[in-house]
Amino acid sequence: MSQVKSPAWLALLLCGVVVAGANRVASQPASPTPPPTPAADPVERASWRGELIGSSLLEVSNPFGDLRLRYGGSGRTVEAAAALQQLDPAGSRLELVVDEKADPATVRVVRTAPADPPPAGPRVDQSRADMVVLVPAGIAVRARTDRGLAESVGLESDVELETTAGQIRVRSTRGRVTAHSERGQIMAMLLAGVTKAPQRFSTVTGSIEVWVTDSCAFDVALATSGRLITDFSIQVEHRDREEPDKVGTAKVGAGGQTLELRSRRGDLSIRRLVEPDQLAVVPVAGAAQP
Q1: Are residues 200 and 178 in contact, defined by beta-carbon separation less than 8 angstroms?
Q2: Closest of 206, 58, 70 to residue 143, by C-alpha
Q3: Are 196 and 216 in contact (CB under 8 A)?
Q4: Cβ–Cβ under 8 Å, residues 107 and 98
Q5: What pLDDT score does 40 carry?
């Protein structure tokens, strides 16, 4: 049986049609790509504002991130705000919980249980909460974090700060300061004449750095197996078979008020903070003052 063959011109015409069609398709503008749907924001904001009913002590805890305490004015009104990142694949959630009627009153970030049992296998929960609390004058505070920062700036009351491994920072606080961290660093700038109560700072292995001005009057006691660093005269007693193995004493100004720095192995520093009107030369940016 003979094979039917198309004429050569027909074959060329078909090829031309195919090529022309392809060119037309290629030359047509592409349809616009729809914008991607924005991902849900994992950060939630929670806030609370109210008056403490009876207590003059406020306990604040946030084991999931940083905690910052700020001066909140006169009266008894406390304000708290938290940024909550809900990132637990098992479905648990972080919540801001306040009990203003308790004694002491409490402001806490807590974790709620997931609605369903968590899936089998390894679980990596990166949920985080960062909180700011405005504290009125005269309301004492006890605050705790785990690995997050604990910071007090401008408070006009006594404050106790505690962390496991987070840093502690204290500045312009007009009251008794007590700070403890197991492994975190402590840095404090102390004001003169704000309280006669002892100021105490302690760690297990973290370093402690305290800045004071010439107007301060402290009898300083230091104890550590780490280094002792000071801008003031110091007397050191070595206790080679003990831990801590060094005990030091120093005097700032006229002395009189107790200032304690204690650590098992962390470095301890007492630094002199020079007031701007004492300087002959304007300090250079990045100079070693906080």
Answers
A1: yes
A2: 58
A3: no
A4: yes
A5: 60
Same domain, yes or no: 157 and 243: no
**Pair (89, 153) in one structural domain:** yes
Residue 143: inside a domain: yes
Number of domains, the chain: 2
Paired with 262 in beta bridges are: 202, 223
Q: Which of 146, 169, 184 is the last residue of a domain?
A: 184
pLDDT of residue 89: 86
The SS3 assignment for 138 reads: coil
Q: Classify residue 278 by its DSSP letter.
A: G
**Torsion region of 273: left, alpha or beta (phi above 0 gives left; psi -120 to 50 gives alpha):** beta
- As a whole number, mean pLDDT of residues 196-224 equals 97
Tens of pLDDT along 71-112? Answer: 999 999 999 999 999 998 888 999 999 999 999 999 999 999
pLDDT average, residue stretch 61-74? 98
